[in-house]
Design goal:
The complex is a heterodimer of chains A (110) and B (115). With 110 residues, chain A is mostly beta strands. Helices cover 0% and strands 52% of the residues of chain A. Chain A is globular and about 45 Å long. In chain B, β4 and β5 form a beta hairpin. Classes of the chains: A mainly beta (110), B mainly beta (115).
Chain lengths: 110, 115
């Protein structure tokens, strides 16, 4: 079946550090891929998405590229801020609903 | 812009009680999804509706039922509540008929605590 595997956290970085959160997927067909962010005590917000191979999603300085050959959708940001502290979920859509990874908690310190 | 509205935001129930969670999708969205997120867990798909008809079921217990009404709002009914039902329940809506490939917009969630 379809599944998403993302790196376990927590990830702790200093402000302005480079961020990578790895995400790989297993799917039949050609799913769409998403990154969602969940700030403490809040709901899920779509951060970025990609709907086909080689697409790059980007938003708020975050980027992820849909790599079919490596079945990956790694999230990157060149310079993180304290306000980026949150839990990040990688997800794929199949014919039913969203399949989420386990989430990666990010803490950015000043 | 209007977002997905969920009510109540917090709910405390005793074991074996019932609970009803409500979801109001973004205007003109015709698809609603329900997810359950346990403490420290990823969201798990429960059930979805398209144009007031159930479209797919995930890991929804038999004690739970849901429906989508003529105004597209949806309600998740939970009976014989168990301690393990304590979780954050998200509703998400989508706007086109193409299925989950379209962007899902999530509500803020209802935090259910079963004592």
């Amino acid at each position: 079946g379809n599944s998403v595997t993302q790196m376990e956290g927590p990830v702790t970085l200093s402000e302005e550090a480079f961020l990578t959160i790895n995400c790989t997927y297993t799917a039949t067909g050609y799913p769409s891929l998403f990154w969602y962010v969940q700030y403490p005590g809040e709901g899920l917000q779509l951060l970025l998405k990609a709907t086909k191979a080689d697409d790059k999603g980007s938003n708020k300085g975050f980027e992820a590229t849909y790599r079919k050959e490596t079945t990956s959708f790694h999230l990157e940001k060149g310079s993180v801020q304290v306000s980026d502290s949150a839990v990040y979920f990688c997800a794929l859509s199949d014919l039913v609903a969203l399949n989420f990874g386990k989430g990666t908690s990010l803490l950015v310190t000043p | 812009a209007a977002g997905v509205i969920q009510s109540p935001r917090h709910l405390i129930k005793e074991k074996r009680e019932t609970a009803t969670l409500k979801c109001y999708p973004i205007p003109r969205h015709d698809t609603v999804y329900w997810y359950q997120q346990g403490p420290g867990q990823d969201p798990q798909f429960l059930i979805s509706f398209y144009e007031k008809m159930q479209s797919d079921k995930g890991s929804i217990p038999d004690r739970f039922s849901a429906q989508q009404f003529s105004d597209y709002h949806s309600e998740l009914n939970m009976s014989s509540l168990e301690l393990g039902d304590s979780a954050l329940y998200f509703c998400a809506s989508a706007g086109l008929a193409g299925g989950p490939r379209n962007e899902q917009f999530f509500g803020p969630g209802t935090r259910l605590t079963v004592l």
